[in-house]
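Incident log, entry 3
Record: TMM33 protein (234 residues)
Problem: checksum mismatch between cached and fresh output.
Input:
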Amino acid sequence: QFLMANKLDTAMWISRLFTVYCSALFVLPLLGLHEAASFYQRALLANALTSALRLHQRLPHFQLSRAFLAQALLEDSCHYLLYSLIFVNSYPVTMSIFPVLLFSLLHAATYTKKVLDARSSNSLPFLRNLLEKLSANQQNILKFIACNEIFLMPATVFMLFSGQGSLLQPFIYYRFLTLRYSSRRNPYCRAKIYDPFLRIVVEHLIMKPSCPVFVRRLCLSSISFISRLAPTVA
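Fresh output:
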């Protein structure tokens, strides 16, 4: 009765569980490398379906207008719908599947607890214990996802020069990253970009006398360029 009363949430729960299943079989290719590539695409397609359903839940009345598009781009579900479309037809990259896997796992765990509560307050204590441990590490998982999102930017550039990516992919992914940076619900990407730890480490290394001058200039120029790329947040 609980599942039937919440059909849209249940559909997203099933699609997230399927995303976790396909992502796990890609990361751990138990069925062979050839099958792993197909699971990569299935995971991203399932994530696109979940994101589309969530976007429909957030904005139920579709309008073909600039204002609606601007409102849709503020939603995290729209960001990950775009993310899935960026990578679904690209060369399989393990780094690109982790945000999809972990977000699906976190959201599926949250809804699984609701399903267990609807069934009985004491049902399946072992599973409840696992879900509680996952929830306790939620912030660390979200920080890891944010780092993954950031480091995928240079990875898309590397894929382009290695012949495994398209010319448009880095530019479209940069747009995705600016959307994540400006996210209203998930501040972790913005926090990690502002995190001075990596910048301090790089500056400490390049200021050593043993560092070549051209490397120092290149790193300082890169830091300045990346700082200018950061979008403004309202």
